[in-house]
Amino acid sequence: MGTTITNNPPRPEPKALASALEQLAARFGNRLITSQAVREQHGHTTTWIPNQPPDGVVMAQETADIQDVVRICARNRVPVIAFGTGTSLEGQVNAPAGGISIDLRDMNKVLAVHAEDLDCVIQPGVTRKALNEHLRDQGLFFPIDPGADASLGGMASTRASGTNAVRYGTMRDSVLALKVVRGDGEIITTGTRAKKSSAGYDLTHLFVGAEGTLGIISELTIRLRGIPETIAAGAVSFETVHGACQAVILAIQTGIPVARIELLNAAQVKACNAYSKLTLPETPLLLMEFHGSEIEVGEQSKAFGEIARECGGGDFSWTTKPEDRTKLWQARHDAYWSVKALRPGDSIGVVATDVCVPISRLADCVSETEEDLKRLNLLSPIVGHVGDGNFHCSLVCDVNDADEMARGEEFMHRLVERAQAMDGTCTGEHGIGQGKQKYLKAELGPEALDAMRALKKALDPLDPLNIFNPGKIVPEA
C-alpha cells in the first residue's frame, strides 16, 4: 500500500555524496554498508508509506561514531537519519533525500542504574524488553510499553506511550535528560538526574518527539518504577462500544488508578480469537490491569466491576497468575498481526493509524468511526489505549482495488478531521513523520509551523538541505 509524499527535499550533489561515502568507508570500514538489501531494511518496512532507502548505513558503536558521521555528512551536505529498530509507523526512518542511516542497535549498554533514585542512564539502542530484563532482579521496571520491542532512543524520538500510559505517562514524562549530537557534531546536554529543574529552556522535551529532526540522541536518563507487589489483569465484555467507552470514562473520572485499560471492538476480538487461539466473546471488550498491594488491587477490581455492570458489561474476570496475564496481553500486542491474518494476499496491506481525543469525547469518536467503516464498507478493527482517549484503526485494503483504496483514504481523512473537531489530535503516539504532515496546519495553525521551522533552522543550519532527517514532521512552507 502506498501514498503520495509531497515533502520531498532535494538529494545531495552526486560528487558530495560520493565524497561522504568515501570518507565514511575510510573511518568505519565494513561498518559502512551500501548493499541494496540492507539499505531497504533501513527505509520504511512496517507501514503503508513507500520504502525510501538511504544511500548507506553506518553501524554505530559509541557516541564518537555518531559525531563523526554527522561531521562528515555536514561537510558534504548529506542527510543523516537515526535508526533504532524500525518499528515507527509514519515514515520516520525513510530517506526521501537519500543520505546515511545511523543504525544504533549496537549502542545497547545500560550505563548506570541508580536504584535508590529510581532512574538509569542508557544508550539509545537499548530495547524496552532488554532494559526490563536487566532491571528485574533489582525490583524495578520501565513502564512505557508501546507493544513492539522498540529501542528507547526511538521511543523518545517519537514520544511513544502505549498500554501503561494511563497510569505511568508517556516517554515525555519518563525522560529526565538527554545527550544529543547537534549539527556540528558537538554534544548538547539537556538536563541532570534531578527529578525537577527550572534551569533554562526545557531542551529535554524539545528533543523528545522531534523524530530525529533536531539532532541524534546518544544517551538517555530515564525514570524507573518499583515492580508492584500485586498485578492483576482482567477482562470484561460489553454489548456496545459506546458502553465500553462510557465505563472507561467513569473509571477515569472516579479516580480508579487503572494501570492499563485497553479497548478491542468486536472485529478486533474476532481477529485475536482466531490468531491467538482465544475464546473471548466476540463483542466489544475491555482489557485491564491493576497495580498495587493485594488489598488495593482487590478494591480497584471490585470498583471497576460495578462501573462495568452499570454500562452494560458482563461478568468481570481477573487473574494474578503471570502466565495468564502474559497470554492476554500478548494477544493485545499481536493485534496488528491478527488483523493482517484476516485477509491474506500479496496485494493486501494494513494501514495502522491513530488519533486521540479528550476522554469525554471518546465514546462519540469511536462510535462515529465504526459508523463510517460500515458506511464505507471497510474492514478496520479498532484497539485503543482508551484511558488516554487514544485509539488505533488497522485498515485492511487491497492496493490493486482503486475504489477500495479511495474509500480507505476517505476514511482516514475523516478519522483525523473528526478527532480534531473534538479538540483532539491527528496522532496520540505514532508521530507525524511523513504520513501526517498535512494535518498539522489545521491542528496547530501556521504560526506554530513557522516556529517549528525556526527551531529546525537554528539547530540544523544546513538550509535548504537540512542534515537531520529531512522531509519529516514540518511540511514545506
What would you note in describing this structure?
The protein has 477 residues and is an alpha+beta fold. The chain is built from 17 helices and 18 strands. Helices cover 37% and strands 19% of the residues. It has a seven-stranded antiparallel β-sheet, sandwiched between helices. A five-stranded antiparallel β-sheet has the order 5-6-10-8-9. Strand 17 and strand 18 form a beta hairpin.
What is the topology?
Elements: H1 14-28, E1 32-33, H2 36-41, E2 56-59, H3 63-76, E3 80-83, E4 100-103, E5 110-114, E6 119-122, H4 128-135, E7 140-141, H5 152-157, H6 165-168, H7 171-174, E8 175-181, E9 187-189, H8 203-207, E10 216-223, E11 225-226, E12 230-237, H9 241-253, E13 258-264, H10 266-276, E14 285-292, H11 294-310, E15 317-319, H12 322-333, H13 335-342, E16 348-356, H14 362-376, E17 382-385, E18 390-398, H15 402-421, H16 440-444, H17 446-459
Parallel strand pairs: 2-4, 3-4
Antiparallel strand pairs: 1-2, 5-6, 6-10, 7-11, 8-9, 8-10, 12-14, 12-15, 13-14, 13-17, 16-18, 17-18
Distance between the termini: 27 Å
Structural class: alpha+beta
Count of distinct strands: 18
| Tally of helical runs | 17
Strand content: 15-25%
| Order of strands, widest sheet | 15-12-14-13-17-18-16
Biggest sheet architecture: 7 strands, antiparallel
Q: Point out poorly predicted stretches.
A: none
Helix content percent band: 25-40%
Rough shape? Answer: globular
User: How confident is the prediction overall: mean pLDDT?
Assistant: 93
Task: Tell me the radius of gyration.
Answer: 22 Å
